[in-house]
TrEMBL record:
Residues 7-27, 383-399 have a biased composition (Basic and acidic residues). GO terms for cellular component: nucleus. Residues 260-327 bind DNA. Residues 47-138 form the ARID domain. It comes from Musa acuminata subsp. malaccensis (Wild banana). One of its GO terms (molecular function) is DNA binding. Residues 260-327 form the HMG box domain. It comes from the Eukaryota. Residues 334-345 have a biased composition (Polar residues). Residues 367-382 have a biased composition (Acidic residues). Binds preferentially DNA with A/T-rich content. InterPro entries: ARID_dom, ARID_dom_sf, ARID_HMGB9-like, HMG_box_dom, HMG_box_dom_sf. It holds the Pfam family ARID. This is (wild Malaysian banana) hypothetical protein. The lineage of its organism: Eukaryota, Viridiplantae, Streptophyta, Embryophyta, Tracheophyta.
Amino acid sequence: MEMNDGVAERDSEKRKEVMRSDSKEGLEPGANYRAYPKPLAKYEDVVADPELFKDTLMKLHAEMGTKFMVPIIGGKGLDLHRLFVEVTSRGGIEKVIAERRWREVTAAFSFPSTATNASFVLRKYYLSLLQHYEQIYLFGSQGWNLPNVPSNTSLTTSVSSQKLVEPVKSHPEAQAALHKRRRNSGSSPTYPPVVGVIDGKFEHGYFVTVTVGSEKLKGVLYHISDQAPWPLVCADESNLRSPRQRRCRKKLSMLDPNHPKPNRSGYNFFFAEQHARLKPLHPGRDREISRIIGVRWNGLTETEKAVYQERGLKDKERYKNEMAVYNERVKAGQHTNLSPIQQLPVQPMMAGQTDTKSEKVDNDVNVTDEDCFSSDDSDSDGESSHDDSEMGRSLDRSAIESTCLAETLKEEDRFELRRREDEKLGNGA
DNA sequence: AGACAGCCGGAATGTGTCTA
DNA sequence: TAGACACATTCCGGCTGTCT
């Protein structure tokens, strides 16, 4: 087995710590609370001894009254011990899913090429056969809540235990599927508003107080990723290198619809104009269009360029003025839509899920921090490359009911109109 | 690094159907 | 009913160029 993943090991230890401390005060036994059987061995022991693993796993299923069998994949019995080791050595099922490492896990089994959906099947079996086992032996969890409890009312439980409330729904794909179904059905459940306040921070997460409707709950948001614990913060912009991180930065600038749109250069205006002209002539050949525009730009005389550069200068001036007004507003403490992080609506989320594309999917009403701040994923991020059509799709998909995003869009629309008017004025002049 | 545009293709995942 | 398979869907980075 490869427990050479020191980071994963440390993560496990930290998760255990959180679970332990949390289980003392956070996971309050309720009507749906079920205590786990005591572990019969240490995690290290079951990892080292496949027989002990099998024995303890069967006993667990017997005690919990759940069905246990060795699944057949690709004509062979699935090595559950290996599956358990592969997954837990990567930090557990949640982390594997969140970090999209199922492929790695699947690769460890050398399934025949005919088993095309092996990773999907592996995950299915892990969830049904090993998830509780993982909770007990890896995380030291002492209990869990039965499904049917509205998941959004259970942030009082630890993050890890909360994910057990509706384990299937907690996973990105399942959430995506869920959302898909919701989209198809055209209906969505309504949840009470959830507002979270960060009480404190520790190395791998935050202590939070969450108000769910009229209920005040305390809990832990645990980030198990090796990356920055709060991807939306992007505090250190010097580290913003990858496109994903760049998008975080853009996202932040997009957050506040009152933030002036950065000025565009003369070339930007030229590009937009030429693109609109060339698009019908070269459908589906955008890269070529870009290249042509570049050639054309270089072929312009200084006088011709000056026309666009003048527009660029005007836009620069516009940006300068708007920024001055904006900065004054910020100084005066007037509203920008950029809420202090402590006041952000917080979606109950599971450990390691801060970077998954689907968590907001699970939230049809409330706005998650992801909706507004995600550095990643979420096609609603308004990435330049997925502009209008993508935005429309994403709205349709997930955020149409999101107050924050809807407001943001309204503001953006207004601003866009303003921008276009400016442009017209620029053209007229 | 991000602004402008938006399609392409790979990867991951979901879903439906067929077979033993 | 589980497994295998094919197809559909979704996501996201990359690509083009130049400028600020």
